[in-house]
Amino acid sequence: MENSSQTGKPYFGFIRSPVRLLAAILVCNLAGVIGSVFTVTGPGSWYASIVKPSFNPPGFLFGPVWTTLYTLMGISLYLVWMEGLSGKRVTTAVIIFGIQLGLNIVWSFLFFGLRSPFLGLVEIIILWVFIAATIVLFHRISRPAAYLLVPYILWVTFASFLTYTIWTLNTPVAGV
């Protein structure tokens, strides 16, 4: 009896390579783990001591939201990766994806590690541009891959506004 990997047919609809799918999801979630090294938010932390807006989500929400987003990013990456890395379109899209994933980690370092909402704000704007570019490039290869990144860019849009607000609330006014 042939299995799906021998016939080239998907295992479960879109899963042609469970190993690649798992690898893509793990790589994306690893970015989250690396970023979380810099993210200290508990009592007595710098983050706990700064002024935050009323719309700042509760701390317990960030873990599940980011885990979901990283998992969706991994599935998205998998869908594009399965189109083959030999073509320039796919290779370029995966490189841009990798850059935005790295920028995702850098935000945590700048905002939490360096305790700089301003640097976090500058960086998250750059991150947003790379996410948008990734969505455009992925859309040319796999529409479902692009659509899976929509919750991510929406969350980063919100996080950008939150970062801006935290920066403005915690920036001393000159001459006061």
Written description of the protein model:
- The model is unreliable at 1-8 (pLDDT under 50).
- 72% of the residues lie in helices and 0% in strands.
- The termini are far apart.
- It has helices spanning 4-7, 18-36, 46-49, 59-81, 88-113, 117-141, 143-147, 150-169.
- The protein is mainly alpha-helical and 176 residues long.
Number of helices: 8
Shape annotation: elongated
Low-confidence stretches: 1-8
Largest sheet: none
- Give me the secondary-structure category: mainly alpha
Question: Key terms for this structure?
Answer:
single chain; mainly alpha; 0% strand; 176 residues; 8 helices; elongated
Secondary structure: elements and pairs:
Layout: H1 4-7, H2 18-36, H3 46-49, H4 59-81, H5 88-113, H6 117-141, H7 143-147, H8 150-169
Helix pairs in contact: 2-4, 2-5, 5-6, 6-8
Task: Write a short abstract of this structure.
With 176 residues, this protein is mainly alpha-helical. The chain has eight helices and no strands. The N terminus is likely disordered.
